[in-house]
Amino acid sequence: STPDDVVASATGNDVNLSWDYTQDIDFSYHEVSQIGEPVYTISNEVTMLLDTDYNEYYIKSVDSHDNYSDKSDDVGAHNLHSGANLVSFSVIPDDNSINNVITGDILGVIGEGVAAVPNPALGWVGSLGSIERDRGYWVKASGAQIHFTTGEKSYVENYDLHAGANLISYTCSGGGSVLDLVTQDCVVGIIGEGVAAAPNPVLGWVGSLSDLMPGKGYWFKTDQDCQVSYDCPEPSLDQLSRDNNDNSIKDYIQSTEQAFYFIEHIENIEVGDMVSAYCNDIKVGSREWIGAYTDIPAMGNDNSDLTKDYCTSESIPTFRVEKPSGETYALTGDIPSWESNALHMITSLQEAIILPGSYSLAAAYPNPFNPTTTISFAIPADTD
Length: 384
Fold this sequence. Notes:
By secondary structure, the protein is an all-beta fold. It has helices at 98-101, 178-181; strands at residues 4-11, 14-20, 27-34, 39-41, 45-49, 54-63, 74-80, 83-88, 91-92, 106-110, 115-119, 123-126, 136-141, 145-153, 158-161, 164-169, 176-177, 187-191, 196-200, 204-207, 211-212, 217-222, 226-229, 258-266, 274-279, 282-288, 294-299, 318-322, 328-332, 343-351, 360-361, 377-378. It has two helices and 32 strands. The protein is elongated, with a radius of gyration of 26 Å.
């Protein structure tokens, strides 16, 4: 018989699954499938560590003759961090209303041109009324938590895109290379949560986004109406370790508004240096330099208190190189204005000469002197 009434809960980073089961006389064990190696148990519950951004599960019972039951309902588990998470849902219940799908301490959900926020009396309010499998969503969490959905797992492999930015899902259970999956010329850029990729006529796809990952949402930017289609890759055994997001400690807040600056060359930079973007003298993004066309994120003001001083439309971010030794220097060059979901290509940035803010004359040293002395002075502009 088939395991039924699957219930999912979380304790910290542990996923707890339990289910009802009418035990057959020749019952042997339950097989709990997930992205990665399955888990086996003879009880009607199991606990597993969720140490990636997303995983999904279902249960089958197995008898002593190695016959398998039908599978249970699927469970999707998103490991959300505090703030904005760009996700998609491949496991959705029959009732896909936002009131039924989005639970927990969630502050808001934003889709492409739609949004909803929780109201203590009315439930979810706003233009976003349901969660769809082919769409991506910004889910703003009040704190770190695991968010579950239970229902039927479905795949979306064909997307009708309009010209411009399309916020879509990735429902495959296996991660897929952007190079292999996205071959349509109409796609001029892809943006994920803090990562991006853009096609280069010589190098192929460049940027920090190399793979589309299960449970994630992506902005596909196109130059015309077109269709994107692909076949889902098979999940690999190392799937759980393939997480495309930058999991290093970030000293800026992820925003739902973001732009990316792909820089081909920076004067005096070395692989391993950090390149950071600033707006209003506040760091709004950073990336380790890995070579030509490293993409530097620059977060924008999304009307939350945490991002109120971030970039806004028409502001121009500044960039700095931060070396492991602690040395820091500013960069100058032709830097385009910030705009949400923009992918900017910059040929070169140079080390900036920092001009003093005022006239000054320091004391001579050594003093007394014989035969020479040094006098330091500063002028803020060309002058006699």
